[in-house]
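Handout, page 2. Input:
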Amino acid sequence: MTQAAILVSAPYFSDDERARIESVGPVVYAGTPAERAALPEDVRAAVRAIANKGHKAIDGAQMDLFPNLEIIAQFGVGYDAIDVAAATERGIRVTNTPDVLNEDVADLALAMMLAWSREIVKGDGWVRNGTWGKGKELPLNRKMSGAPVGIAGMGRIGRAIADRCAAFGMPVHYTSRTEKETPAGWTYHGEDVVALAEAVDWMVVAVVGGDHTKGYLSREAIQALGPRGVVINIARGTCVDEEALIEALEAGDIAGAGLDVFYGEPHVNPRLIALPNVLLQPHQASSTAETRRDMSIAQCANLAAYFDGAPLPTPVN
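Output:
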């Protein structure tokens, strides 16, 4: 193979997503590190771009398999699976697909907050299994509107969540590396997550993934939430001290949690599964047909811009 090629590095692109990538240029499929290492030398030499999806690591050793690699286009806003420093050292550009998924992720965060506070999953079960029909009333649940909410990470997604919470009359508190332009009355806590936790009942984790945010919601911050505290995580499992969270939930030190992401997913700690005060979701925050289409289009726009010699729409490095 001598023509420049795009390596599709994950096995779980949909047919539509594959077709979009194929419309940009010739494609090589190698979904695992072993498959990539087994490619013939001339095929690896032809690869100039990688279309990546998911959370399987692409490190320097993987990049070195492709001596003419110049760009890695990630499907998704999170790029913590890609060693960006290693890419930069090798002159390889990295792109992602921000913005197009903000609304869906924010919607799911609010959906989990409402579902947890109003016992929506339990209520559905009571109607279906006849418990309600037998005259048993669902215990009184908890009002969400008006309660103070903390947004741990006021980036694009964090702001979309905060705007929705504000519409529910919830006083907004947040952490961020820099203070943001926000409506009057929103409270900035710098990067002091413990102070944020002390001020709120709801803690929504919306920081980016990666080593620098590992354990961002620390044991101390979880304890600072107190017995009315609820943790909502739509970021990465690594952004929360999961062991500390489980211990606090088991002990009743906080009220509950709604989690879309986990350590070691899709395998979830059985202690979390056993807890009645936790709402669990299968990492589906951006999982709508519309948003996944837009993410695919954005990924391919970066690939097409690269091959056309045009500025990359959403560069990371």
